[in-house]
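Read as amino acids, tokens; as here:

___
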Amino acid sequence: MMIDNPATVVMLIDRMESQLPIPAAPMGQLARVLGDQGVKINTESAVLTKRVFYLADMGSMSCEMTATRGAGAAHVVSLNHLRIGPDQPLYHDIWAYQRNRKRRLAESTQ
């Protein structure tokens, strides 16, 4: 069973690339993992997505992300671990992708 709809992924990547950089915030697990690596970040930290990738169906859509303060190293993270603000033009499209991907992942493990 495919998790992502390839046409949806291509369309969303194209739309996201036209809006880069996209401000976001890391979700809890991502903030903890990066914090364990010495990155000063929390779930309220502002980050910027600078590039978008598709790492196949199992890898999902991913983004090159840097912290906006003291940028330091870039990290490639799953789009599902970023929270896009509702004031962003692609908020609804990104949220729908995240919701559908989580639902399909849950269905694939049953």
The beta strands are 22-26, 47-54, 61-67, 75-78, 82-84. The longest strand covers residues 47-54. The helical segments are 6-17, 28-36, 56-59, 91-108.
